[in-house]
């Protein structure tokens, strides 16, 4: 099967959704071309609308197929480049797979106060304002979900091996660590945060993000 994949992303220190899509494609181990559309230079989304029907990033092009949205990209990659020829993005066990999918959906559609109060771009600033009470409450909720998923598991990731749900949560984990969210009551989740940040593709994205000029706003 041809691997003529192109992934359009935003700046690595701004576009948290792009990080998710990029981690998923990288995990599959298939060749792809990465193209950046700087969000700071595309205020009216005109450049993004030329490649994405939603005007948002990331967007994956595979020949004539166009897939916007990071969660849709995860599903498309899993169908198009399935295991065992390629590393799986979802757990093999049906129950674990359902759990991973609803956790991913919860991140995809929720935690709005966390996103607003711990903006991804501010994680790369030398200094940042403390997170507010609502953002911290959602952070605690997220850590509790991690703790529950990790209970009785083999770790170090949510369902044993690194997968799609870990890619979906990676930018949120960057936020939790940058804002020094307390983890004393969720020790398994604390270890999980460290494992995700140490994962080589995650570390590679973050190194590139830190090399960019800090963006207080965009």
Task: Describe the protein.
With 218 residues, this protein is α+β, with helices and mostly antiparallel strands. It folds into two domains: 5-80, Glutaredoxin; 94-210, Glutathione S-transferase Yfyf (Class Pi), Chain A, domain 2 (Up-down Bundle), CATH 1.20.1050. 49% of the residues lie in helices and 8% in strands. It contains nine helices and four strands, in the order βαβαββααααααα. Strands 2-1-3-4 form a four-stranded mixed β-sheet, with helices on one face. The longest helix has 18 residues, at 133-150. The chain starts with a strand and ends in an 8-residue tail after the last helix. The mean pLDDT is 96.
In short:
With 218 residues, the protein is α+β, with helices and mostly antiparallel strands. The chain is 49% helix and 8% strand.
Order of helices and strands: EHEHEEHHHHHHH
User: In the CATH classification, which architecture of the largest domain applies?
Assistant: Up-down Bundle
Shape: globular
Strand percentage lies at 5-15%
Helix content: 40-55%
> Counting H and I runs of at least 4 residues, what is the number of helices?
9
Low-confidence sequence ranges: none
- Tally of distinct domains: 2
CATH topology category name of the largest domain: Glutathione S-transferase Yfyf (Class Pi), Chain A, domain 2
Structural descriptors:
9 helices, alpha+beta, 218 residues, Glutathione S-transferase Yfyf (Class Pi), Chain A, domain 2, globular, four-stranded mixed β-sheet, Glutaredoxin, 2 domains
Helix-strand layout with pairing:
Layout: E1 5-9, H1 16-28, E2 32-36, H2 46-49, E3 59-62, E4 65-68, H3 70-80, H4 94-109, H5 112-117, H6 133-150, H7 164-178, H8 187-198, H9 200-210
Parallel strand pairs: 1-2
Antiparallel strand pairs: 1-3, 3-4
Helix pairs in contact: 1-3, 1-7, 4-7, 6-8
């Amino acid at each position: 099967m041809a691997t003529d994949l192109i992934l359009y992303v935003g700046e690595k220190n701004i576009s948290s959704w792009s990080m998710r899509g990029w981690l998923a494609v990288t995990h599959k181990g298939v060749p792809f071309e990465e193209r950046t559309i700087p969000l700071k230079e595309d205020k009216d989304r005109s450049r993004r609308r030329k490649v994405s029907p939603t005007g948002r990033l990331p967007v994956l092009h595979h020949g004539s197929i166009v897939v916007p949205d990071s969660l849709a990209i995860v599903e498309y990659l899993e169908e198009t480049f399935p295991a065992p020829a390629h590393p799986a993005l979802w757990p093999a066990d049906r129950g674990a797979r359902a759990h991973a999918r609803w956790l991913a959906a919860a991140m995809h559609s929720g935690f709005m106060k966390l996103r607003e109060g711990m903006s991804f771009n501010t994680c790369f600033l030398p200094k940042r304002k403390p997170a507010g009470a609502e953002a911290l409450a959602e952070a605690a909720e997220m850590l509790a979900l991690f703790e529950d998923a990790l209970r009785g598991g083999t770790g170090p990731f949510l369902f044993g091996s690194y997968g799609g749900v870990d890619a979906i949560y990676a930018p949120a984990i960057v936020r939790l660590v940058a804002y020094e969210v307390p983890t004393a009551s969720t020790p398994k989740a604390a270890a999980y945060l460290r494992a995700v940040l140490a994962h080589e593709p995650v570390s590679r994205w973050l190194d590139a993000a830190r090399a960019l000029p800090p963006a207080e706003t965009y």
